[in-house]
């Protein structure tokens, strides 16, 4: 059974159905416009999707108004050395972990200078990895706290706040968390669902903005 709602909340079930459902809800052009309208920039950190997410976003002409760049971090060494994911966290938990996903998102936002980072890590198959079943995917999301406060943004429903791998200064600078996707399907379907789910997560994050914030309004006085 596939579970997807207006906001992500949770996504589970057949990967092909999840990908199609998320794609119906999210269009990269609209996402880029939403980011540009709010003056926000985005960067991607990808493990199992290996560049598929940034490629999907870059289908939109003029994407550079919001997409600053991305890192394909297939190995733990790249996660550690490029994205600054805590070495002890990686050693203790492995790469397929909610706090690792959040750290990847923070790391790519920091190293590119973006306001928002979105990350994918998981097991696309065909075999389990590091004790995690095929279809276990974590999407990481991070945003500079100053920008989140400016726009009144918060982590969407179902996105669990990061609880490990961040020091006091990091916690003061970023809001970050992760969302679990529990998927079934083949490798291509799981990767496609991860890409579409990541787009949907960013969209849901932007939709946590209170009504009226970030939208030009005119106040008349009499």
UniProtKB/TrEMBL annotation:
Residues 30-147 form the CinA C-terminal domain. This is Nicotinamide-nucleotide amidase. It comes from Nesterenkonia sandarakina. The lineage of its organism: Bacteria, Bacillati, Actinomycetota, Actinomycetes, Micrococcales.
């Amino acid at each position: 059974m596939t579970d997807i709602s207006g906001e992500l909340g949770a996504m589970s079930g057949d990967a092909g159905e999840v990908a199609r459902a998320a794609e119906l809800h999210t269009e990269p052009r609209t996402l880029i416009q939403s980011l540009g309208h709010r003056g926000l920039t985005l960067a991607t950190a990808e493990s199992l999707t290996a560049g598929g997410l940034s490629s999907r976003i870059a289908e939109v002409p003029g994407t550079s108004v919001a997409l600053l760049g991305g890192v394909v971090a297939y190995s733990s060494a790249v996660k550690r050395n490029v994205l600054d994911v805590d070495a002890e966290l990686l050693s203790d938990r492995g790469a397929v972990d909610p706090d690792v996903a959040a750290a990847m998102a923070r790391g790519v936002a920091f190293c590119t200078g973006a306001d928002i980072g979105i990350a994918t890590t998981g097991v696309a198959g065909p075999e389990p990895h590091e004790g995690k079943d095929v279809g276990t995917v974590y999407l990481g999301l991070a945003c500079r706290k100053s920008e989140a406060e400016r726009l009144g943004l918060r982590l969407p429903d179902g996105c669990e706040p990061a609880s490990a791998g961040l020091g006091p200064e990091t916690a003061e600078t970023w809001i970050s968390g992760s969302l679990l996707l529990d998927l079934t399907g083949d490798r291509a379907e799981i990767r496609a669902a991860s890409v579409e789910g990541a787009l949907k997560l960013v969209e849901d994050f932007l939709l946590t903005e209170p009504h009226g914030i970030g939208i030009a309004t005119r106040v008349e006085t009499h």
